Amino acid sequence: MRREIGNGLPPGSRAPSAVQTFLLWRWPFEHLERCRGKHGSSFTLRATSRPPLVFLSEPDDIRAMLAAPADVLHPGAGADTIEPLVGGESFMLRDEDEHLNGRRVILPPFHAKVVREHAELVAEVAQREIASWPREAPFALHPRLRALTLEVVLRTIFGACERLTDDRLYALRDRLLAMLSVTASAVFPEPLLRHGPGRRIWTRFLRERAEVDRLIHAIVEDASRAGEGSSDLLGRLLQARNTDGSPMSPRQVRDNLMSVVLAGHETTASELAWAFQLLAHNPVVLERLIEELDSHGGEEYLTATIQEVLRHRPVFLFAIPRAVKQPIEIGGWTYRPPARLLGCIYLVHHDPALHHEPQEFRPERFLGTGPSGYTWLPWGGGRKRCPGLHLAMLEMKTVLRTVLASTTVGPAGARIEHPRWRSVIVTPHAGSRVVLHPRLHPRLHPRC
Ligand code: HEM
């Protein structure tokens, strides 16, 4: 091989793994940029408690990684960080046929056509939630957005049937929110910190998780006793078969539901939190967006704005790590186990050779053309490509329309907030603090 030297991996920092982990944790954008600047488009990062992580930031290399055969790269094995949340039986942690089989069950309820049928539900949840937000006073949007997107995803996966009363839904939602507070702590990605001072946080998480499981199992049991063949995700999981023909176990049903709950709300809430930060700090974009929404014309600028938010602040800085199972050659390197390959979405989106003035927030760049191919990857790709993207787009459009129908958004601080990790994604560090100012001439009927 052309560049197989030393340990056979692309260059990277020689700092101890604890230092490298800390830098990525504390200053993710700067650290990734610095590594690319110093070591080139492919570089290796050594993190504590993880095999070597190889970051790829050339679109051609990422394309090759995403297209690799299923038995060569294992994204299921690479997603092990989220195991304590989703559970070891989740389809997200499986590879090859088992992963594909799980995805076949998950995908149909999130198909574009099915998602369109949820438009009214999303609008109703958004209008109710947003009506309760403060006006003329700074507040953090992220916790409120999490409650909103979690309610949407719970109603979507359990369907509109009677088995989930509002009391049960809100009890589950509130327990989930309490359980997931662990994702803001460094204890979550780093098992070494779960002892000593971190022990209290971890024990509280385990207690909350047991309570969440009790609530989910009760809903699942009621549904299987009722035996209705419903087409929502729970109904599909109860009818689904494993690759060996056996039905899914209660544990599998729980873990797959939890996977969609987790992947389906923290992400959208955080992307919206970034959207409001960016709009609050870019009044010209905000004004143009409100103009378009008020005109009841098309939604070209709204779409471009969301595409630009996804480019500028992708919540996943890298796609799910792909664990190398068999040697694979990409970009002049041969990768072998136990390396993990990470398609670095953040660096691709901030490469000046691919996006003019990438640090500028400018939706106009996508007007008329839209983003193209492997230069814009907020949904990842290949066999792990986000199955929830249509629901996420619907939610983001609906929330922006609803908020901007009656208020404008102002900043609560001098600068856009720094990133902060929550599990495997990044959110604005102070929860996206903004001020909502009532509009003098509110739009009476936001079209959702
Ligand atoms: C703005 C919001 C969202 C963003 C930016 C996002 C992004 C992503 C990304 C980057 C991946 C990994 C793809 C890869 O590694 O190649 C992913 C996977 C996934 N997403 Fe999303 N997502 C969002 C919303 C949603 C929603 C609303 C749902 C479901 C309702 C969802 C369900 C999933 C699932 C289940 C996976 C794992 C797929 C698999 O293992 O095959 N996501 N998402």
How would you portray this structure in words?
The chain is an alpha+beta fold and 448 residues long. It is built from 17 helices and 12 strands. It has helices at 17-26, 28-39, 59-66, 75-78, 83-86, 96-106, 112-116, 119-131, 141-158, 166-179, 199-226, 233-239, 250-280, 283-295, 300-312, 345-349, 389-406; strands at residues 42-45, 53-56, 73-74, 139-140, 322-324, 328-330, 333-335, 340-343, 407-411, 419-422, 425-428, 433-438. The strands form 4 sheets. It has a 5-stranded mixed sheet with strand order 1-2-8-5-3. A hairpin with a 2-residue loop joins β10 (419-422) and β11 (425-428). α10 (166-179) runs antiparallel to α11. The longest helix is centred in the middle third of the chain and has 31 residues, at 250-280. It is globular and about 65 Å long. It starts with 16 loop residues before the first helix and ends in a 10-residue tail after the last strand. Mean pLDDT is 93; it is low at 1-6. Bound molecules: protoporphyrin IX containing FE.
Quick tags:
three-stranded antiparallel β-sheet; disordered N terminus; five-stranded mixed β-sheet; 448 residues; alpha+beta; single chain; binds protoporphyrin IX containing FE; 17 helices
Shape: globular
The whole-angstrom Rg is: 22 Å
| Largest pleated sheet | 5 strands, mixed
Question: In terms of per-residue confidence, which ranges show pLDDT below 50 for 5 or more consecutive residues?
Answer: 1-6
Percent helix, as a range, is 40-55%
Output the number of helix runs.
17
Q: Termini distance?
A: 55 Å
Strand content: 5-15%
Bound ions, cofactors and other small molecules, one mention each: protoporphyrin IX containing FE
